[in-house]
UniProtKB/TrEMBL annotation:
Keyword annotations of the record: Calcium, Hydrolase, Magnesium, Metal-binding, Phenylalanine catabolism, Tyrosine catabolism
The protein's name in its UniProt record: fumarylacetoacetase
Keyword hit for Membrane: no
SUPFAM superfamilies listed in its UniProt record: FAH (SSF56529), Fumarylacetoacetate hydrolase, FAH, N-terminal domain (SSF63433)
Domain of life per record: Bacteria
Domain Fumarylacetoacetase-like C-terminal: 109-375
Organism: Cryptosporangium minutisporangium
NCBIfam families the record matches: fum_ac_acetase
Chain spans, region Disordered: 155-174
Length: 396
């Protein structure tokens, strides 16, 4: 129950309460909490300077006890009408604010955790061989991305340039990517740092990770195909990574927690998550120029975020407040559940038909991609994770 009018189903109800950073004309960016079609100015209503820094980092660094205390306070404010006179003046219509990148990104790591995605790509690029590499079911494969090019949803996606070499080419050429793609992903935001040399076990996931956002890790497939051997992605991935403006706390996702898929390889002890149920029943939706082209489910991912964090730090690598790690492309077992165009178009062999009569193998200039997601909430409700969007602009 709440005194707010939440008749419009925004997915941002009292059981969600995602955090972001916003500004209004003439005022500096500060922390806000999405509720219905409004944003609560957390800096103004609390008077706490930690919420007036223009980034969530200072608050996230305070850790789980502070996160829980603020969440309990927010819940009380929105459910007890006695607080209405205090809280209501600090609610700003969501369509009247400017949203900002919610965190100062310290490091960025992208994983490769969907078995369906990995097998789809393996069949395309290694026909006649096992689709998964020998290490795939033994460790969460990942790579370090470029933190400086992690940007807010809506940032223009300027077509990247680099070296590319098609199979028929004798030598590589330089120019704009001809095979620009999306990667529908889920990101996890680190709040509490760890010490260098001290691994973070799977059981300590909630001691360090604050919440979840959506990620589109744009990919230039032709640049990546030429450069990735032997060291992996570089220019094909580092030009832009888009993130959604709202970070949904892990505390809001209790009803979304579910068992991971059955593993058919024995896990090494540091990845054993049988006591940690951190697969999440999230449902993603991918739109291209307004048309739904895919509905990837997150729950079937082979590697959970708790395992990803454990593997990321098992060598002693330290966490920092504002670290972001992403799931890798989320794809399900069905054709309409694939989270990238390279899968949806079978590497360009089967163009994707759109309702306007056009087709796509990869992205064209002017295309707009929007990824959204929902999660189950209490009592049969659905929580929104917001959306991440981007428009392709010509090479500069």
């Amino acid at each position: 129950m709440t005194w707010l009018d939440l008749s419009a189903d925004t997915g941002f109800g009292v059981s969600n309460l995602p955090y972001g950073v916003f500004s209004t004309p003439g005022a500096a960016p500060r922390t806000g909490v999405a509720i219905g079609d409004a944003v609560l100015d957390l800096a103004a209503v609390t008077g706490d300077p930690v919420h007036a820094t223009g980034t969530l980092n200072a608050f996230l660094a305070q850790g789980p006890a502070a996160w829980a205390a603020v969440r309990a306070r927010l819940t009380e404010w929105f459910t007890d009408a006695w607080h209405r006179a205090t809280v209501e003046p600090h609610l700003v219509p969501r369509d009247a604010v400017t949203l900002h990148l919610p965190i100062d990104v310290a490091d960025y790591v992208d994983f490769y955790s969907s078995q369906h995605h990995a097998e789809n790509l393996g069949r395309m690029f290694r026909p006649g061989s096992p689709p998964l590499t020998p290490n795939w079911k033994h460790l969460p494969i990942g790579y370090h991305g470029r933190a400086g090019t992690v940007q807010l949803s809506g940032t223009p996606v300027v077509r990247p340039s680099g070296q590319r070499k098609a199979p028929a080419d004798e030598v590589p050429t330089f120019g704009p990517s001809r095979r620009l793609d999306i990667e529908a992903e889920v990101g996890f935001v680190v709040g509490v740092p760890s010490r260098l040399g001290e691994p973070v076990p799977v059981g300590a996931f909630t001691e360090h990770v604050f919440g979840v956002c959506l990620v589109n890790d744009w990919s230039a497939r032709d640049l990546q195909a030429w450069e990735y051997v032997p060291l992996g992605p570089f220019l094909g991935k580092s030009f832009l990574t888009s993130v959604s403006p709202w970070v949904v706390p892990l505390a809001a996702l209790e009803a979304a927690r579910t068992d991971p898929p059955l593993r058919d390889e024995e896990l090494l002890p540091y990845l054993d998550d049988r006591k940690e149920r951190w697969s999440l029943n999230l449902q993603l939706e991918v739109r291209l120029n307004g048309a739904i082209v895919s509905n990837p489910p997150f729950a079937p991912l082979y590697w959970t975020p708790a395992q990803q964090l454990a593997h990321l730090t098992v060598n002693g690598a330290s966490l920092r407040t504002g670290d972001l790690f992403a799931s890798g492309t989320v794809s399900g077992p069905e054709r309409n559940q694939r989270g990238s165009l390279i899968e949806l178009s079978e590497n360009g062999a089967e163009p994707l038909a759109l309702p306007d009569g056009t087709t796509r193998t990869f992205l064209e200039d002017g295309d707009v991609v929007t990824i959204s997601a929902t999660a189950p909430g209490p009592d049969g409700t659905r929580l929104s994770l917001g959306e991440v969007t981007g428009r392709i602009e010509p090479v500069r």
